[in-house]
């Protein structure tokens, strides 16, 4: 069976794995996120050598999920938040020269959505949205049986839909984005505002306090869940997805966010579109990015001709 490599660059680590055609991870490795472009390329080279050694057969191609937005026309990453030196680098050709195999790169959330679609909880549907609700909110959209790319590859940024026009300033330059109003950070912010406390605390701890009956914690979690539901309602009306998958730490194991978010989505979307959509947990957890990147690498080139936009 042919094997492919998937790489997933995050804020703290570069994770990778060798994945077979059924989406099964055969070997995994991980290293801290490099700060520079040179560091990135030399780390990829050594991780790749390690994977090759472990698997003992040629890896056919590699996929890379990268934070930021991926420019289809230039085969490069833009607005990369963690490894700034990668901005504007034609990363697909550079990685192909380095590794000697075909390389497919994309936004990390697109790769995760692709992984859930091919090998996770989204198998068998033609219209699927994955929202990863953690420190930020990543999103990938499968529409009419293909990954939605838009004109240049920048589509699918559902985390930056404004759901509260006068809300918090967002790193994207907007205000009141789904990411600033429904992420783990939003839960922490609301709890601190309500309690006046500056204590270091995570969203997970606040969710535990909410479950134990802390009123401020419950209110913070409920408000963030409500905004998540507003976002879900917009997505249901726009895309009529058969499934929306929710991943990330905020969804945890309990229903404290999922249930109120789904109830809000029901109030905010057309009844038939809502009823046609199943909202459930993603299946692949932290491995969706690796599995999706490898699955993308396994696909034949799609022959996409990107438009030139307003240049
Ligand atoms: Zn934003």
Strand portion: 15-25%
Gyration radius, in Å: 19 Å
Strand order of the largest sheet: 3-2-1-4-7
Give the structural class.
Answer: alpha/beta
Bound molecules: zinc ion
Portion in helices: 25-40%
Shape: globular
Order of helices and strands: EEEHEEEHEHEEEHHHHEHHEH
How many β-strand stretches?
Answer: 12
Span between termini = 44 Å
Determine the number of helices (DSSP H or I, runs of at least 4 residues). 10
Low-confidence blocks of residues? 302-311
Largest sheet: 5 strands, mixed
Q: What integer is the average pLDDT?
A: 93
In short:
With 311 residues, the protein is of the alpha/beta class. The protein has helices spanning 37-55, 91-99, 108-119, 178-182, 184-195, 203-211, 215-239, 258-268, 271-275, 288-298; strands at 3-9, 13-20, 25-32, 62-66, 69-71, 76-78, 103-107, 128-133, 137-143, 146-147, 243-247, 278-281.
Characterization of this structure:
- The protein is α/β, with parallel strands linked by helices and 311 residues long.
- Helices cover 38% and strands 20% of the residues.
- The chain is built from ten helices and twelve strands.
- A hairpin with a 4-residue loop joins strand 2 and strand 3.
- The N and C termini lie far apart (44 Å).
Outline the fold blueprint.
Blueprint: E1 3-9, E2 13-20, E3 25-32, H1 37-55, E4 62-66, E5 69-71, E6 76-78, H2 91-99, E7 103-107, H3 108-119, E8 128-133, E9 137-143, E10 146-147, H4 178-182, H5 184-195, H6 203-211, H7 215-239, E11 243-247, H8 258-268, H9 271-275, E12 278-281, H10 288-298
Helix pairs in contact: 3-10, 5-7, 6-7, 7-8
The chain binds zinc ion.
């Amino acid at each position: 069976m042919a094997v492919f490599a998937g790489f997933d660059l995050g804020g703290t680590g570069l994770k990778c794995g060798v994945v077979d055609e059924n989406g099964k991870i055969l070997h995994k490795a991980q290293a801290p996120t490099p700060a520079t472009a040179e560091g990135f390329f030399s780390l990829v080279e050594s991780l790749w050598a390690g994977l090759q050694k472990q698997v003992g057969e040629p890896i056919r191609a590699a996929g890379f999920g990268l934070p930021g937005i991926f420019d289809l026309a230039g085969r490069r990453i833009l607005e990369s938040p963690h490894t700034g030196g990668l901005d504007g680098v034609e990363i697909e050709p550079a990685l192909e020269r380095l590794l000697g195999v075909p390389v497919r790169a994309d936004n990390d959330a697109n790769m995760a959505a692709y992984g859930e679609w091919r090998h996770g909880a989204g198998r068998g549907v033609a219209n699927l949205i994955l929202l990863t609700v953690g420190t930020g909110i990543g999103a990938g959209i499968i529409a009419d049986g293909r990954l939605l790319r838009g004109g240049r590859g920048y589509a699918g940024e559902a985390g930056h839909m404004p759901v509260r026009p006068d809300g918090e300033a967002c790193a994207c330059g907007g205000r009141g984005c789904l990411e600033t109003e429904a992420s783990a950070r939003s839960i922490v912010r609301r709890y601190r505002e309500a309690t006046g406390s500056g204590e270091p605390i995570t969203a997970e701890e606040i969710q535990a306090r909410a479950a134990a009956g802390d009123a401020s914690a419950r209110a913070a979690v409920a408000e963030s869940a409500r905004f998540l539901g507003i976002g879900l309602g917009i997505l249901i009306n726009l895309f009529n997805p058969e499934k929306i998958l929710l991943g990330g730490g905020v969804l945890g194991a309990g229903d404290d966010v999922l249930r109120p978010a789904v109830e809000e989505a029901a109030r905010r979307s057309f009844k038939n579109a809502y009823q046609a959509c199943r909202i459930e947990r993603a299946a692949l957890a932290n491995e969706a990015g690796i599995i999706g990147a490898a699955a993308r690498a396994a696909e034949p080139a799609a022959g996409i001709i990107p438009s030139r936009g307003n240049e």
